[in-house]
Amino acid sequence: MAVLGARPHERPAFDPRLRNELRAQLEGALAPVAERIPAGETLWLSKYLLGLVHGCEGLFLAQDGAPFAWSPATARGTISHKAIELSIAWRGDPAAGELVDAALANLIASTDSISDYLTALTDGEQAEVRGEATERVNLFLECFPPLEPRWRPVAESRLRAELNGNRIVLAGKVDLSVGRAHGTRAGKVLIDLKTGGFAPHHHEDLRFYALIETLRLGVPPRLLASYYLDGARLQEEVVTLDTLGSTVERVVAAAGLIVALRHDGRPPVLKPGLPCRWCPQRSTCEVGQQHLREHDDPSGW
After folding, report:
1. Which of 70, 78, 94, 161 would bridge 215 by S-S if both were Cys, CB 3.0 to 4.6 A apart?
2. CA–CA gap between residue 299 and residue 60 (Å, rounded)
3. CA atoms 295, 296, 298, 301: torsion sign
4. pLDDT over threshold 50, residue 301
């Protein structure tokens, strides 16, 4: 709480014109991109697409438009987040397994596609997913401070900003937020829950959310924080005008790249790296194969 909280005099105030200035800056820079989007289509930008297109453009094209398919990993994450969302409003002191069971029941009863996926699992497969989700939720409950109602906690908060006559939409969903703005004074903290270790794009993901929040509310979040469940560690960043400015540039660049790759026939720039290991084009991409030959350890270590 020493990291997430702040006294009133420690919370920065922002110019009330900031939202309109950011929107004008974005729409002005995106206008040439919006003109190249085919009629009747909308370009949806998410943190996932931004990270993908700013990496290897060959991987972006290989995965772009592919239908989403549920897996044990994605199901586990969805169940965990739903259970954590339930923990905020749950009365008493629930166990992680109790929350996961409630989350599973809600998702199976829903009309979302995950319902069909979970229903089709065998008892053993469902037990494995449940056990892994319970582990995640327990990591959260035993180390994260209990969320009091006065902190205004919200889980799975959806954000959206429509630009250039709805030709381009920025959209996202924040794992957890606490606090709120007071007038033009920042007070909200956006938190992403992570398993595993730090990756540079974690900062970029939260900066993207901060930009959408500013366009939506007019006041940026005060703080961005990635919370690593395995190590019970916060990696925080204060939101500044420079943060928002660099994110605007990143969004504009991504939009231009996506339209150029999807509609203008621009050849992709290949950037080999760790994702080469699971790229769908690995068997036919010489650049990726060369990278794997040079960097993969044949001993498996």
Report:
1. 161
2. 30
3. positive
4. no
